[in-house]
Amino acid sequence: MKIKVKKLREDAKLPTHGHPGDAGVDFYAIEKVVFAPGKQARVHTGIAIEIPEEHVGLIWDKSSISFNLGLKVFGGVIDSGYRGEIIMCLLNTSDKEVIIEKGHKVAQMIIQKFEHCEIVEVNEITETVRGAGREGSTGHK
Q1: Residue/partner pairs of 79-83 with CB below 8 Å, 24 or more apart
Q2: Where in the numbering of this chain does the dUTPase-like domain appear (predicted)?
Q3: Of the four, 61, 83, 88, 120, which is 20 to 30 A from 110 by CA?
Q4: Tell me, what's the pLDDT at 131?
């Protein structure tokens, strides 16, 4: 599959795969962003992409940024009809200021095929062994 990518700013860095066979495509910050402790901020990439119909771009954490810096991605669904800039919203879950420098990897996107579903209202749905069990329903807390 080929994904068309457009630089919205000359100094934007094109998304890349970190290693051959990696599922995620890395996106890079177009400018320095400072995250105050416990606060969220937007990270601009300067990139627009054309996701094929019947596909979605799912934004996920970079493990090193999540594990080491405490930055978590929010709002990570990019529909195929969207043609604007890819902007990552991240939350600093740590108690320290975190700085992402221009050109640093900030998040990754996985392009995934999906099934479009028809919503049908019913009076009953089928029962399962789990039923309405939520957190801890497997006995692990």
Answers
A1: 79/51, 80/51, 80/52, 80/53, 80/54, 80/55, 80/56, 82/51, 83/48, 83/50
A2: 11-139
A3: 120
A4: 81
